[in-house]
């Protein structure tokens, strides 16, 4: 059975879609079978970031409505054989995203893939709650600034109460992915530093992704950064995050710092 | 000379407050109802003493005389009626309790669970709430008793306690202690960065809190109408 991961944040523009694509591609490069699912009905972007926008025929809503089979809607990546995309609908009403429909689609994806990575829309409305509904684990993407951190905190609260796992009395694993981190600005106090964010959110750290121009370029050419620029520092940070997600114990390195924080961050438990 | 009543120093404070009252709904015929009532009262002696009791006569069509009779028969049993619901205005005079309306239903009270009183009944302390996880933004914790939180209270989270609030972590959200009017309730936290603190309805926003308290281990309490704070060293 595959593992369902939701990439979520509450706030928009923090890098959910970019991170979904990068981590999805990183996991697929290890040989795992991965599907990235876009839940942002009406404002889909994952197809662009994955470079599949010209190959979309059917989408998630078509599958939920029974107008297409799941296999027809899945788009296989041209570069990686084991990476698939399930796009969201750009034109349909987001109310067509029903809890029953999502449950069915996720259940069939779980039997066919190792990883189901759900790219959540921003906000805490229907799309976001349905994206997290069936998650086994969550990647909470946060930027080092107060509004993003507060929204992430809100989302963590929802992960602990509104998911199927939470309602069954279990816990959704939660991982913090600190994105767009600028070590110079964190050092000067313009930005929250890693410790500040960790202290507020108190969930384990999956990785710190440095602010970088590579990301913008990768999005614009429609290729995850872990595919098109795999030797860059950003891509390496995503590769390591993906390996940690898969259970490997790799020390987290903070961009701009030579030391690794193995003991410091792995010694911490999620509260 | 005319007295000017608009001076601010002469203002009279009017406050609204809601209380939970026991509502008695007699049924006809009254004699039989009183028989059943006396059996109940003998099983839980003292249940109705010192309790606010309301009478609901909706739908049993009582006139003024039978109402007077009913109230006096209850009075013989030591029950004082604070208000009557469901009677028409004309029936109630100055010799009867006032008419009440607009009550909100609460859960039914079960008199049988009450132990027979031996001497004065001690007030049951409200249960306290223990939380071992951080309180996240958007979450609200409510308890009639004390609340103890082992973890932080995030910005945008809210904690409302009838008693005191203890936060063994950073307090960043809003906290209201003594929410049902308990002025002796206090707020304790290991690190104060609260957005708002309130005790028994009196509040201070973070802007009004003294800057020297920020980030400190602090206790807050109410003195008269002002919230006082002290650092723990």
UniProtKB/TrEMBL annotation, chain A:
The keyword Nucleotidyltransferase does not apply. Coiled coil: none annotated. ATP binds at residues 11-18. Keywords: ATP-binding, Cell cycle, Cell division, Nucleotide-binding, Septation. Residues 5-225 form the CobQ/CobB/MinD/ParA nucleotide binding domain. One of its GO terms (biological process) is negative regulation of cell division. SUPFAM superfamilies: P-loop containing nucleoside triphosphate hydrolases. Signal peptide: none annotated. Belongs to the ParA family. MinD subfamily. This is Septum site-determining protein MinD. It comes from Zhengella mangrovi. The gene is minD.
TrEMBL record, chain B:
It comes from Zhengella mangrovi. One of its GO terms (biological process) is division septum assembly. This is Probable septum site-determining protein MinC. Belongs to the MinC family. Residues 130-228 form the Septum formation inhibitor MinC C-terminal domain. Cell division inhibitor that blocks the formation of polar Z ring septums. Rapidly oscillates between the poles of the cell to destabilize FtsZ filaments that have formed before they mature into polar Z rings. Prevents FtsZ polymerization. InterPro entries: CAP/MinC_C, MinC, MinC_C_sf, Septum_form_inhib_MinC_C. Interacts with MinD and FtsZ. Keywords: Cell cycle, Cell division, Septation. Residues 86-128 are annotated as: Disordered. Pfam families: MinC_C. NCBIfam families: minC (TIGR01222).
């Amino acid at each position: 059975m595959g593992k369902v991961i939701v990439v979520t944040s509450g706030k928009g523009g923090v890098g959910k879609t970019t991170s979904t694509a990068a981590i999805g591609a990183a996991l697929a490069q290890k040989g795992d079978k991965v599907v990235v699912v876009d839940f942002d009905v009406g404002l889909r972007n994952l197809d662009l970031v994955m470079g599949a926008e010209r190959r979309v025929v059917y989408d998630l809503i078509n599958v939920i409505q029974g107008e297409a089979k799941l296999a027809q809607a899945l788009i296989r990546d041209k570069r990686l054989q084991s990476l698939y995309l399930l796009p969201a609908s750009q034109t349909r009403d987001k109310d067509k995203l029903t809890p029953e429909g999502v449950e069915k689609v996720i259940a069939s994806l779980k039997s066919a893939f190792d990883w189901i990575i759900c790219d959540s829309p921003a906000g805490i409305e229907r799309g976001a709650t349905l994206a997290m509904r069936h998650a086994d684990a969550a990647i909470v993407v946060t930027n080092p600034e107060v509004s993003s951190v507060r929204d992430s905190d809100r989302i963590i609260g929802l992960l602990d109460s509104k998911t199927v796992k939470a309602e069954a009395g279990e816990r959704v694993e939660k991982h913090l992915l600190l994105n767009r981190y600028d070590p110079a600005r964190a050092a000067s106090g313009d930005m929250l530093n890693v410790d500040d964010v960790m202290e507020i959110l108190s969930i384990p750290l999956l990785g710190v992704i440095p602010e970088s121009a590579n990301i913008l370029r990768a999005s614009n050419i429609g290729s995850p950064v872990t595919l098109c620029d795999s030797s860059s520092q950003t891509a390496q940070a995503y590769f390591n995050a993906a390996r940690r997600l898969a259970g490997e114990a790799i020390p987290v390195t903070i961009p701009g710092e030579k030391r690794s924080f193995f003991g410091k961050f792995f010694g911490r438990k999620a509260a | 000379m005319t007295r000017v009543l608009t001076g601010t120093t002469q203002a009279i404070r009017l406050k609204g407050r809601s209380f939970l009252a026991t509502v008695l709904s007699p049924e006809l015929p009254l004699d039989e109802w009183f028989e059943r009532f006396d059996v109940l009262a003998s099983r839980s002696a003292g249940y109705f003493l010192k309790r606010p009791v309301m009478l609901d006569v909706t739908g049993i069509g009582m006139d003024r005389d039978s109402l007077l009779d009913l109230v006096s028969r209850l009075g013989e049993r030591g029950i004082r009626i604070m208000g009557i619901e469901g009677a028409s205005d004309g029936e109630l005079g100055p010799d009867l309790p006032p008419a009440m309306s607009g009550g909100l239903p609460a859960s039914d009270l079960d008199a049988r669970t009450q132990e027979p009183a031996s001497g004065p009944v001690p007030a049951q302390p409200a249960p306290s709430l223990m939380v071992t996880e951080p309180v996240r933004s958007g979450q609200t914790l409510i308890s009639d008793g004390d609340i103890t939180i082992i973890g932080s209270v995030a910005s945008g989270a809210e904690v409302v306690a009838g008693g005191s609030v203890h936060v063994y972590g950073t307090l960043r959200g809003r906290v209201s202690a003594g929410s049902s009017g308990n002025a002796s309730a206090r707020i304790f936290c290991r690190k104060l960065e609260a957005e708002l603190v309130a005790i028994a309805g009196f509040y201070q926003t973070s802007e009004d809190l003294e800057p020297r308290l920020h980030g400190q281990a602090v206790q807050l309490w109410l003195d008269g109408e002002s919230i006082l704070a002290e650092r723990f060293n």
